[in-house]
Design a protein that fits this description.
Blueprint: H1 2-32, E1 46-50, H2 55-66, E2 70-75, H3 78-92, E3 97-101, H4 107-120, E4 126-129, H5 147-162, H6 164-169, E5 173-178, H7 202-223, E6 229-235, H8 245-250, H9 252-264, H10 269-272, H11 274-281, E7 292-294, E8 297-298, H12 308-322
Parallel strand pairs: 1-2, 1-4, 2-3, 4-5, 5-6, 6-7
Antiparallel strand pairs: 7-8
Helix pairs in contact: 2-3, 4-5, 5-7, 5-12, 7-12
Length: 325
């Protein structure tokens, strides 16, 4: 009797364990989302990736290196950037991976990076505007702009425009801009971009910057139509990266309570990089220039992300702010 009872308990335990394991595997597969299956090679091509020393930027750099590209990792921290580059060179066997300094919080740094790139490089096939900050306390850049809008949008806007002639000379070429689903409900506060008139809310500021990413990509696609340069924006997913550091410091107790389950429900950096990679290398995307992607497929953005007049207005305002003619 005791043996039979114990046997039944073991059977039940085994069944529960099996179901739990299968459910978790299926859940993780669903969370991971789309996978870039393109086998495109990039020998002879040059790729620039901002914020490439960590997170999805680093994973994207690793993938581009595996495909044989010359990879230029544009990083604010040269020490961390070189450490990541050394790791990528070692694991891929591609020695054509270099680090150059770029601080998107400084328009002067952006201009210096562009000058050096144009002076030393012969082509630019793929520009991946990946770097970003999220939910940080209110702060201003050296140029006087609210940090999230400046780093996530203005720095990349200026960088792309300064390198646009080289992109046009290297066609077919692509610009990939990492936006976010957070653009939904976002608004460009033209009368108060720095949130000087109203109370600062890090979420609202982040939404503004991510909407700006999407609108910038949309207007860039319109302006480069027929030139051989194409532009794509994307939502990478909710990912386990350093971007969460500010929310963790602001709500430490809540973050510690939720960290374990949340980490299980987030994409890994490699999973999060898949849509960026997809937009960068997948064949036949030329007709999708200006589109927004998620999980390696076209996704319709929120209504505010489809406003072409807003995209045109944002371009003009951004050009004025960064000093472009």
């Amino acid at each position: 009797m005791w043996k039979e009872l114990k046997k039944n308990q073991l059977v039940k335990y085994g069944a529960v364990t099996t179901v739990t394991t299968i459910s978790y595997v299926l859940l993780r597969k669903w969370i991971a989302g789309g996978i870039c299956r393109s086998r495109a090679k990039l020998h002879g091509r040059t790729v620039v990736i901002t914020g490439a020393n960590t997170g999805i930027g680093k994973e994207t750099a690793w993938d581009m290196a595996m495909r044989g590209a010359r990879v230029i990792m544009a990083c604010r921290d040269l020490t961390r950037g070189e450490a990541a580059a050394t790791e990528i060179r070692s694991s891929t066997g591609n020695t054509n991976v270099v680090v150059q300094q770029l601080n998107l919080a400084s328009l002067g740094s952006v201009r210096q990076f562009a000058r050096e790139f144009i002076a030393t490089e012969t082509r630019l096939d793929i520009l991946i505007n990946n770097a970003g900050i999220m939910l940080c306390p209110k702060s201003f850049t050296v140029d006087g702009f609210e940090s999230q809008f400046a780093v996530n949008h203005l720095g990349h806007f200026l960088l792309t425009n300064l390198l646009l002639d080289m992109l046009k000379a290297s066609t077919p070429s692509r610009v990939v801009i990492v936006s976010s689903i957070a653009h939904q409900g976002g608004k460009i506060h033209y009368d108060d971009l720095n949130f000087d008139k109203k109370g600062y809310n890090s979420v609202i500021a982040y939404k503004q910057s991510k909407l700006a990413n999407l609108l910038f990509s949309r207007e860039l696609a319109r302006r480069t139509k027929g030139t051989g340069v194409t532009s794509y924006s994307l939502h990478p997913g909710v990912i386990r990266t350093e971007l969460w550091r500010h929310s963790q410091s602001k709500y430490p107790t809540l973050s510690s309570m939720l960290s374990a389950p949340a980490w299980l429900l987030m994409k890994t950096p490699r999973e999060g990089a898949q849509t960026t990679i997809y937009c960068a290398v997948t064949e036949g995307l030329e007709e999708k220039s200006g589109y927004y992607f998620s999980d390696c497929q076209v996704k319709e953005p929120a209504l505010e992300g489809r406003d072409d007049l807003a995209a045109l207005r944002l371009w003009g305002v951004s050009a004025g702010l960064v000093g472009l003619n």
